[in-house]
Amino acid sequence: TQRSCAHGELHYRSKARVAQKRLFKHILEQGMESLSSLARVFRGTIVHTRSKTNLEILCDHVVGIDKSGCISFVKPDGEVQIPQEIPVVDLGKRFLLPGFVDTHAHAPQYVFAGTGMDLELLPWLDTYTFPAEAAFNETEHAVHVYEKSVRGHLRRGTTTVCYFATIHLEASKMLCDLLKMVGMRAFVGKVNMDRNSKDYYVEDTAASLRDTRSFVEHVQQSCGTGRDALVQPIITPRFVPTCTPDLMAGLGEIAQEHGLRIQSHLSENEGECAWVKELHPDVDSYSEVTYRLRMHIFGSSRKWTCRVRSKYSCVRVFLLGRLRCSCSSFLCVQR
Length: 335
Prior knowledge:
Blueprint: H1 2-28, E1 38-51, E2 54-66, E3 71-76, E4 88-96, E5 100-106, H2 121-134, H3 139-155, E6 158-164, H4 169-182, E7 185-189, E8 191-192, H5 205-223, E9 231-233, E10 236-237, H6 245-258, H7 270-279, H8 286-296, E11 303-304, H9 311-320, E12 322-323
Parallel strand pairs: 1-4, 5-6, 6-7, 7-9, 8-10, 11-12
Antiparallel strand pairs: 1-2, 2-3
Helix pairs in contact: 1-9, 3-4, 4-5, 5-6, 8-9
């Protein structure tokens, strides 16, 4: 088991390093034909890492950005004849580095960030999270909080985020509209919950699926349907205790129809694991429940965000496909 986990993690890291090297090499080797679509140039020092142990500092370089917002070239200053009509940003003593990526963020929880540390997960949800998220049925409140949440990420250098919103359709759509407006790359999920929640914060199964379809359609019509779309919908069942098998099955169909990624939570503390065992007594472990949902419901969907707590869970999660996690205490593997 341990060997399988280590192999999966090493394979993931190896693939990531190769992809990163190929991308940067491609950017460095771009020809001068890219100047025709140039929109802006940054001049100065560039700092980036090719791996965890390889920091590269490029002094006196220029970075060209094309009209679609993509990097067109990275070259030493003086090797590129920049047309006079193209605006050039001189960084001076500042430096340019890639934006951070937050792979798991709850946008509505900005309102009580840093509080509620006195409770474990399940009572914390009932006491702090669900009451706070329920307030997002008021769109004015949602816009106010989401603007602060998004701009807070941007101020700290985070330019790509995988967001959980709430169960509310209109508020979730507004979050996507805001992200598009500020030019931030994001995956956004309208949260799904149809059981084991407070009466004021729970959905009917059919309504949850209907609103999810509407949410997906809105985001794809507004931001595009390709994998390069700046803002993309992501299917978001909160976690097994709050989602019935019927809801999971319906979400899986939506994911397959649109080729969408999926995010959720898995095995975050012992109380949650015990609850899942009560709900699914015929299954050996929490990860086994997720595994069955993945194989028989989610089909070819590729993304699951979670935390694993045992070697057995690690293997099961490895079989799910790709994993993205948000902090160093999470175990990341990718097939």
